[in-house]
Amino acid sequence: MRVLGIETTCDETAVAVVSERLGEAGGEILSNEVLSQIARHAAYGGVVPEIAARAHIDVLDRLIRRALERAAIEAKDLDAIAAAAGPGLIGGVLVGLTAGKALALALGKPFIAINHLEAHALTARLTDRLDFPFLALLISGGHTQLVAVNGVGDYRRLGSTVDDAAGEAFDKVAKMLELPYPGGPQIEKLALEGDAHRFNFPRPMLGREGADFSLSGLKTAVRQEVLKLQTPNKQDVRDLAASFQAAIVDVIVDRVRSGVRLFTESEGRAPQGLVIGGGVAANGAIRRALVRLCAECGLRFISPPAALCADNGAIIAWAGLERLKRGLTDDLDFAPRPRWPLDAEPSRSHHGKA
Ligand code: KG4
Ligand code: ZN
């Protein structure tokens, strides 16, 4: 089975072809074309929805052609077309969703609408052999949540951020430090040369029951320090970056630890592992801390390569493959969903068995 996946929910235009790997649990990525629009948005310090939608239109057909070429496959030999239908910026979602439906219609192939968060949650099954149920930590520019993944289409949110997303916190702090967008990778780099103990930033929600996150207080505390320093010098910036990152790592580790407990209580069994996804999951300090936590809890840790944690088409195609195998396809009138919580699944219209 081979599925083409289209991703346009944020500022990456991405198309990939993924096939099933026979006899193994994982999939094989035949092509994975990603065009980042970062350069077009950098001047504004963040993603501008209108610019994003237009940029997706400019490149999408070319990228679809290229993904097919690189995979050395003709469109007629695909088994299905999958496209991210949300959550995300509505203009961009419309572009990819409409292209996916048009392709499916023209080829007479099944169409599959993918929840972008579901794609991040299922990535670990593309790269590794992993059975359900497992715990997924999704940390990106728009989302921060812990999800119990009990099966394809069977998700339960255990906790999420009550204010800023993790990536948003990284980006906002980077902006205060006058670092270019996106700020996450910049902070990580500077933190390597900074003193993480110089500023004692708050660790919101630490020790709190449940698995919710809160990050805006931490961001505000950084802002106050920056204001106090007036014009932070290079070492101040490195120390602020290191101290901020240390705080966010502590918060994430604490929330995941609590999430593992909550998972076992609420699902009645322990997770098969912890998987991470979303752009922030590329962060080395966060990964290392989660490796330690999992070792401590006796939990398997599955961290897909950074390129597959960030937004790309292969994870959409893979989620499409997982659904196709279970007969879960969608109608061509499937509407884009700017907001689409993962556990909203029961209301979803689809064909086939659940
Ligand atoms: O998943 P993603 O590519 O896009 C969505 O938001 O859906 O995530 C982008 C976010 C940005 O906020 C970026 O600053 C953050 O991921 N990010 C990082 C790192 N690389 C990307 N944050 C911390 N450390 C990194 N190395
Ligand atoms: Zn994402």
Question: What labels describe this entry?
Answer:
alpha/beta; five-stranded mixed beta sheet; globular; binds 5'-O-[(R)-(carboxyoxy)(hydroxy)phosphoryl]adenosine; binds zinc ion
Brief rundown of the structure:
The protein is α/β, with parallel strands linked by helices and 354 residues long. The chain contains eleven helices and ten strands. The relative contact order is 0.18.
Describe the structure.
The chain is of the alpha/beta class. 44% of the residues lie in helices and 18% in strands. The strands form two sheets. A five-stranded mixed beta sheet has the order 3-2-1-4-5, sandwiched between helices. Strands 8-7-6-9-10 form a five-stranded mixed beta sheet, sandwiched between helices. The longest helix is centred in the C-terminal third of the chain and has 34 residues, at 234-267. The radius of gyration is 20 Å and the shape is globular. The relative contact order is 0.18. Residues 349-354 have low confidence and may be disordered. The structure holds 5'-O-[(R)-(carboxyoxy)(hydroxy)phosphoryl]adenosine (KG4) and zinc ion. Zinc ion binds next to helix 4.
Topology:
Elements: E1 2-7, E2 12-20, E3 27-36, H1 38-42, H2 49-71, E4 80-86, H3 90-107, E5 111-115, H4 116-127, E6 134-139, E7 144-151, E8 154-160, H5 166-176, H6 183-191, H7 216-229, H8 234-267, E9 274-277, H9 284-297, E10 301-302, H10 306-309, H11 313-325
Parallel strand pairs: 1-4, 4-5, 6-9, 9-10
Antiparallel strand pairs: 1-2, 2-3, 6-7, 7-8
The structure holds 5'-O-[(R)-(carboxyoxy)(hydroxy)phosphoryl]adenosine and zinc ion.
Zinc ion binds at residues 116, 120, 140, 278, 311.
